[in-house]
Hints:
Helix content is 32%, strand content 23%. By secondary structure, it is α+β, with helices and mostly antiparallel strands. The longest helix is centred in the first third of the chain and has 20 residues, at 2-21.
Amino acid sequence: xxxxxxxxxxxxxxxxVLLLAxxxxxxAQEPDMQYDRIRAVVDGLRAPHEAVAVEHHLRxxxxxxxxxxxxxxxxLMVQVPRASQLSQALFSSWCEELGYQLRCYHRDHEDGSHLxxxxxxxxxxxxxxx
Length: 130
């Protein structure tokens, strides 16, 4: 039992500290680089593996630093360099290559603030149609 507790503590407490200390670790960023975050709703997802497929497809594109698609909320979050010229039309075309549509596209400066979820049921729908 003590061995299991020790292993748990090492994995839960020490590993995140090591990731912070390792050059090129998960949260390491280039100095003086500024980023924008792109948020949207992905329509047409029917299974979690489809959300993963969209993530992998977008991560392979130039200037896409981070990409995450949440199947449950259908929310897409992408981080790109602020100077990037990636547009809503380009992201839409990339998703359409896989058979999905984007709506409620937002691009703003990454400032470390809380990232609210987009409502996948009402986002982009006129109030009279809700």
